[in-house]
Design goal:
This protein is of the alpha/beta class. The protein contains 12 helices and 6 strands. Helix 2 packs antiparallel against helix 3.
Length: 289
């Protein structure tokens, strides 16, 4: 209610003390409103709430004016030594690198992508979204399950600050569309749990009544020879991270070729080990530290 009241009256009509109370109340409410949506364990909740709080306070400019008896005062000169918030100089938010969130389906990626998007919105950063069409606006689908970035994009010119959409990872193109020196983030999950989650979520709309049980699904999966016909189910985590794009084929013939698999994993080392972060859903507490 205070937030709505603040929005309607405008920042110049609200005393500083009321603004401080409103911001504090808003932060407290966000702690309880956002965390259930993230569905993270209890130990990670403190990090999540502090993360949101840091975004709000780190990006907000302290107000240097107040209102007395209905007459706004001119803003005073900012000071770097005053303990009074009214006179403190605005502190710019800490700079962050360009962010590339590699969305791996059914690994908790939607929640983390939302955090990255909120950070980008708060910092007024430019997100890479698919061009508007008559039926969609600012689509999150960047060519998936086909090649990144899909149709409609111009030539890459390092023009974006972050990527969070549905996309098959292509390190070279990601770097070309993002500003220099991006930071890469992704989430992964134990393969069996991820497969079960994908079956429960996409199975009914995909198979109808033809595949109803888990054993039937495993038999069907073993028969698949081409990833493109079933992008949600056939080796999906590796596929989203660019395995079949790296092979330049949708055939699953190399899925059990250990030598080829290790060469591909080695190619992911620079973006994800040297200048990136891999979060495991089963160890989300440790990953958020």
């Amino acid at each position: 209610a205070q937030a709505i009241w603040l929005k309607r009256r405008g920042p110049n009509q609200v005393p500083l003390t009321d603004r401080f109370i409103t911001y504090s109340a808003g932060i407290i409410m966000l702690r309880f409103a956002l965390l259930p949506l993230l569905a993270v364990p209890l130990a990670a909740q403190s990090f999540g709430s502090l993360f949101v709080e840091a975004l709000l306070l780190g990006s907000s400019r302290p107000v240097c004016s107040t209102m007395e008896s209905g007459h706004p005062l001119p803003p005073p000169v900012c000071s770097t030594s005053s303990n009074d918030q009214r006179f403190q100089c605005p502190v710019p938010p800490h700079p962050i690198p360009p962010l590339a969130f590699l969305k791996v389906h059914k690994t908790g990626s939607e929640a983390f992508a939302a955090l990255v998007s909120r950070l980008g919105d708060r910092r007024n950063l430019r997100r890479m979204t698919a061009p508007c069409t008559p039926t969609s606006h600012m689509s999150k689908n960047l060519g998936w399950p086909g090649s990144f970035p899909g149709p409609g994009f111009g030539q890459p010119q390092h023009q974006y600050d972050y990527i969070t959409g549905h996309a098959i990872f292509d390190e070279g193109l990601f770097r070309q569309y993002l500003r220099p020196n991006p930071f890469f983030i992704t989430t992964l999950r134990e393969p069996g749990a991820q497969a079960l989650s994908a079956f429960n979520y996409f199975g009914k709309s995909t198979f109808g009544k033809s595949v109803r049980t888990w054993p039937q699904y495993l038999d069907w999966l073993a028969s698949q020879q081409n990833r493109s016909s079933s992008p949600w189910f056939v080796n999906p985590q590796a596929a989203d991270l660019g395995w079949y794009r790296w092979l330049n084929t949708d055939r699953t013939v190399h899925d059990k070729d250990n030598s080829t698999v290790h060469r591909w994993l080695h190619s992911l080392g620079e973006p994800l080990e040297v200048n990136g972060l891999v979060l495991l859903l089963e160890y989300i507490d440790e990953g958020l530290v």
